[in-house]
Specification:
Layout lengths: L2 H26 L7 H13 L3 H4 L1 H10 L5 H4 L16 H21 L3
Helix pairs in contact: 1-2, 1-4, 1-6, 4-6
Length: about 120
C-alpha cells in the first residue's frame, strides 16, 4: 500500500470518528443533566452501531488498522476463545465495533474536556 493511500485511509477513518463524536456531543446537549452519563453511553452505542466502519469487512479492516483501540474487543471480552469455533470466520465486525466505539468515546471525552 502506498503511503498516500494509507494516510488518506487514516484521515478518512478519523474524520468519521470525529463526525460521530460531534453528533454525540450535539445530541448530549439536549439530555437531562441527571441522566447525562447514561445518555452518553446510549448515544455512543446508537451512533456507532451499524456505522459503515463497523458493518463492512473492507472498512472494518481499516478500523482495526487505524484505531487507537484496535484491541478493545480483546480487552472487554467480546473476543473470547470459547465463543468462536476453530473454523469460524475471524470476527472483524465485532472487533471493529468495539474499536470504533472506543475511539468515539475517547474523542467525545476530548470534546467535552474530560481528558
Amino acid at each position: 500500500m502506498c503511503r498516500q493511500q494509507a494516510k488518506r485511509e487514516n484521515d478518512d477513518y478519523w474524520a468519521a470518528v470525529t463526525d460521530v463524536a460531534d453528533n454525540v456531543v450535539a445530541d448530549l446537549k439536549d439530555a437531562d443533566e441527571d441522566d447525562q452519563d447514561e445518555c452518553l453511553s446510549h448515544l455512543i452505542a446508537e451512533k456507532c452501531d451499524q456505522h459503515e466502519y463497523v458493518i463492512g469487512n473492507d472498512l472494518c479492516i481499516h478500523t482495526l488498522r487505524y484505531s487507537n483501540n484496535a484491541c478493545a474487543g480483546f480487552l472487554d471480552g467480546t473476543f473470547a476463545a470459547n465463543q468462536y469455533a476453530r473454523n469460524a470466520e475471524f470476527p472483524f465486525t465485532d472487533l471493529a465495533a468495539d474499536a470504533f466505539e472506543a475511539d468515539v468515546t475517547d474523542k467525545v471525552r476530548q470534546l467535552l474536556g474530560d481528558e
